[in-house]
Amino acid sequence: MRRAEPTAAERRRLTPLAAALARARAPGPPRLELVAGTLAPGRRHGLLAGTFNPFTRAHGALAMAGRRAGCERVVLAMAPTSLDKEAVERAHPVDRLDWARAWAGRHRWAAVAVSSHPLLVDMAAALGGLAHGEVALLLGADKAAQLADARYYDDLEAALARLSGTATLLVADRAGHPVHEHGLPAARLPTAAWVPARSATEVRAVAARGGDLGPLVPAAVARAIGRTGAYDDDPSRYLARARWLDALASSPGAVENGASLSRGGRTATSLEDPNGHA
After folding, report:
1. 113-122 as b/e: b if 16+ CB within 10 A
2. Could you give the count of Cα atoms lying within 13 Å of 183 in the half-sphere of its Cβ?
3. pLDDT at residue 275 in the model
4. Averaged pLDDT, 223-236
5. What is the DSSP-derived secondary structure letter of residue 251?
6. Which of 29, 80, 150, 243 is the most buried (most CB within 10 A)?
7. What is the DSSP string of 6-65?
8. What does the alpha-carbon distance between residue 66 and residue 64 come to, in Å, rounded to a whole number?
9. What is the domain partition of the chain in residue ranges?
10. What share of the chain has pLDDT > 70, as a percent?
11. Whether 14 contacts 248, CB under 8 Å
């Protein structure tokens, strides 16, 4: 029988991730906290940001493409709450971070970080400050278009100027999303023909109907989804697990300030709402 709550071994593995996510929610300037892997000071770093809900084979393909494009390290970065996905529910951010870390652990050049801010311009600046080297944003054409969307900035022109001085763009094709010109230093990021059409949305739908996840996500992620029931059509069992995961951040010693992933009784991904599937 599949367990709703984490095992003792999972608690030991996941508690540091819960603590990092809680710290990222604290007020302060943009920052990244590494939770897996290492940086290569002074070298070129690729930054692949996302909700990783879940981490897919397409995410892995983008990371490997960045490595082939000359990035000494590729950092998978996730914020507790991401742009346009504040209402996305399941899986819990602790699980998602853990799944990305599982993939990164198989690649010495990959690292995983928690970001305090969801904007790519803030993540790029924070990574540049940590690595003291060039930063290349690895992103699909859909995310590249968001960079020039004024909704996300108080001052779009200033934000783009800041980004152009902080990072270059490596842009991969994305099905249904043409590559836009926005004046930022950019180059195409070649990926396999199957990558542009794959999405985490597809994975969640396949998982909800009990389909085969093997072609869509790494094997370790597929096993974790099946074991936890993260995207089951009936959310009740996973919501019980989510409450356990949310409690990790407030466990003794989990975080210095005792902060929780929850604010006002809700998690960063609206896990309290059992209706609808993001």
Report:
1. bbbbbbbbbb
2. 11
3. 28
4. 94
5. S
6. 80
7. PPHHHHHHHHHHHHHHHHHTSSSS--EEEEES---TTS-EEEEE---TT--HHHHHHHHH
8. 5
9. 8-175+182-248
10. 81
11. yes
Element (H, E) at 129: helix 120-131
The pTM score is 0.83
In sequence order, the 6+-apart residues with CB closer than 8 A to the CB of 36 are: 101, 104, 105, 110, 111, 112
Sign of CA dihedral 139, 79, 201, 150: negative
Distance CA 132, CA 118 (A): 21
Say how far apart CA 136 and CA 72 lie, in whole Å: 11
Domain 8-175+182-248: state its class: alpha beta
Closest CA to 118 of 150, 89, 147: 147
The reported pLDDT for the residue numbered 155 is 78
Express as a percent the part of the chain with pLDDT over 90.
57
CA–CA gap between residue 75 and residue 92 (Å, rounded): 20
Amino acid at residue number 196: P
